[in-house]
Amino acid sequence: MNVLIVHAHHEPQSFNAAMKDLAVAELRSQGHAVEVSDLYAMHWNPVASAADFGVRQQPDYLVYALEQRHNQQQQALAADIRDELDKLLRADLVIFNFPVYWFSMPAIMKGWLDRVLVSGVCYGGKRFYDQGGLAGKRAMLAISIGGRPHMLVEGGVHGELNDMLRPILRGTLAYTGMTVLPPFVAHHVPYITHEARVELLEQYRQRLRTLDSLPPLQFVRLDQFDAQLHPLPA
Amino acid sequence: MNVLIVHAHHEPQSFNAAMKDLAVAELRSQGHAVEVSDLYAMHWNPVASAADFGVRQQPDYLVYALEQRHNQQQQALAADIRDELDKLLRADLVIFNFPVYWFSMPAIMKGWLDRVLVSGVCYGGKRFYDQGGLAGKRAMLAISIGGRPHMLVEGGVHGELNDMLRPILRGTLAYTGMTVLPPFVAHHVPYITHEARVELLEQYRQRLRTLDSLPPLQFVRLDQFDAQLHPLPA
Prior knowledge:
The structure is a homodimer. By secondary structure, the first copy, chain A, is an alpha/beta fold. Chain A contains seven helices and six strands; from the N terminus they run βαβααβαβααββα. In chain A, strands 1, 2, 3, 4, 5 and 6 form a six-stranded parallel beta sheet that branches. In chain A, α1 packs parallel to α7.
């Protein structure tokens, strides 16, 4: 399969970078084709703006999603967006590899979502959730976080981690139709020993060897709602 | 009181810009001092990187939060971060004004959180939730979103909007100690008439006139947890 790893960390020696390198090596050794978008190394521009569009349907008033659709049709999206969209469309599995900042992804990666998940291709109209434009692809987060496991469960100080990640897991990945695998979470990374980090990397390797046996997360389907998106009786 | 409005929209004629302008005028007419950080107009850099630090505690390995603390102590944070942090520390109320992208804020604003919510000032150690560094300040989201209200409630196609906003409301604003007011939400904005937009702006004006009577959202308190952040018996 084709794998795309979208990676965001400013320190090449970081644990997150080691996770990315391990995934590249492991997945290639399994026979997969792996591409990496190393956002810091690429100097990725995360800011959605008028500069993303070579032509304009509405020159006087910028509606970003409208111009995404128009520029995709006219093949006039900015080259950096087009390159990433091509990688995304080639991929069977997309891994988002990042340190959790404010219970979300670093801004440089949020801007990858904002600019690359182009309306008219990845979503739009009634193409969302199981009808989304990226249906058939799988996605997984591979993340590090400062907190300990007991802080990130129901009743813990921050509640269930997947609830914090909901706008990504459900609102973005499932929304665009992707099959969402459970996140791989490396806890407490800034505070643990080298040996503990090595052990976490080994756990990540095992995860990458067992992707096909992982039950994906479950989300809504559009056939549970009527044409106006009111819920139908169960 | 001092109000800071952090605004992120690339179109000066947008509904979001109108919300921002209305809030400036309304809050000033109430006698408050209002500052605006118009992130697109400022060409705000949202990418957390080594360039944010004038000095380094660890020159060979970038740990962002560590260098935030060190550079804050050494008064060596990048000038754009220092300016925004000063605005934030002056503010009694912070309004985050943005269009919802992927059930979150645009990357340019996420990068304001990443860079300006400096460790050692806004949070750090046991200074979070009710013990957070920004305790005593209030925060409110003022947002536009494409969906209709019935799509953003429990049982709706996307579930409760505040659950999607959890990493911001709880994981960021409440985490840093701020008192979080319910978001003001302008639904379905891209698809409604001019008259309906005017009506929404009037609702926003009323909201800004009744902030003191709004019950804030409720979150955990650290006295509900032991020293290792395990929950205490209720």
